[in-house]
Design a protein that fits this description.
Helix content: over 70%
Radius of gyration: 18 Å
Order of helices and strands: HHHHHHHHHHHHH
Structural class: mainly alpha
Number of helices: 13
CATH topology: Na+/H+ antiporter like fold
């Protein structure tokens, strides 16, 4: 379990690196105005954890569940946008650019947000930025750079290997979720309808924020919406275990992971471009 999750993320990040062209990465960043950058920051880092705290209060979650839901909202950047989705109206290069941008800001944004939120509950929690920087560098930037290098020096191999790496990484990640649920066992008995509802509503809110705040073409919006819902549950689990020490944080993180898994399975239909839907109807 401890090795499977980082291995899955490592393979997925290599896959993203293989699909990433530096020129397109830079072009995606340059296409955004300062106003759009601000709205993207709000939709990615500021509003999801705020909504998580609001949902926790409205649904009367306990302190451990609140911490778990907040940390999910505070940690963006899971590499779950599959190549299969990219063929159906999503921009995988934009998703990769968004992943890199979110990873770069994670050590900057998460520590102060956690500190402020903890103060609201009379707690004092400080997450050292170097810890987050090390996690991001080791588990995301290193395999990402490896994937980019493979594409640069072995393009034929990378083109063939990228879909397989993506498939293996996603399969391993879903296996992690299954093992995690099995190991939780008794802890899952404390999951209530409100816990499940809070996780689902947070996922829906992350999608809705992109649609509400960004004014750009439909492909970009739907790509960013799905990417924003893919919060970094692995990092949320790590931080909740190390800094909250509450068994109630784990079930809500697991509920969110399952909610996103369902979202990814249904994304092709939920976010289906109209022209594709029309062609299918005619056929």
């Amino acid at each position: 379990m401890q090795l499977l999750l980082p291995t899955a993320v490592f393979v997925l990040m290599i896959s993203i690196g293989m699909s990433l062209r530096t020129s397109e990465l830079i072009d995606n960043w340059r296409a955004l105005t300062w106003g759009m950058w601000l709205r993207l920051l709000l939709a990615t880092f500021i509003l999801p954890p705020a909504i998580a705290l609001l949902l926790a209060r409205m649904l009367s979650l306990n302190l451990g569940e609140t911490a778990g839901l907040f940390l999910v909202g505070a940690t963006p950047g899971a590499p779950l946008l599959t190549r299969n989705l990219a063929r159906r109206g999503f921009d995988m290069h934009l998703a990769a650019s968004y992943q890199v941008w979110g990873a770069l800001l994670t050590p900057v944004m998460i520590p102060p947000m956690v500190l402020v939120a903890a103060k609201l509950y009379s707690r004092n929690i400080w997450i050292p930025p170097r810890l987050l920087l090390w996690q991001i560098a080791e588990k995301e930037f290193l395999p990402l750079l490896l994937g980019i290098a493979l594409m640069r020096f072995a393009p034929a191999f990378s083109t063939k290997a990228q879909p397989k790496a993506n498939m293996i990484g996603n399969a391993a990640l879903f296996l992690v979720f299954a093992v995690m649920l099995w190991k939780m066992g008794p802890a899952l008995k404390v999951v209530t309808l409100w816990t499940v509802l809070a996780a689902m509503l947070l996922a829906i809110a992350c999608v809705g924020l992109m649609y509400a705040l960004l004014r750009t073409d439909k492909v970009r919006v739907r790509t960013l919406a799905v990417s924003n819902a893919n919060r970094h549950v692995g990092l949320a689990l790590l931080l909740s275990g190390r800094y909250t020490h509450s068994r109630f944080a784990l079930p809500v993180v697991a509920c969110y992971a399952l909610s996103v898994a369902v979202l990814m399975a249904l994304a092709q239909r939920i976010f289906r471009p109209r022209h594709i839907a029309t062609k299918t109807a005619v056929a």
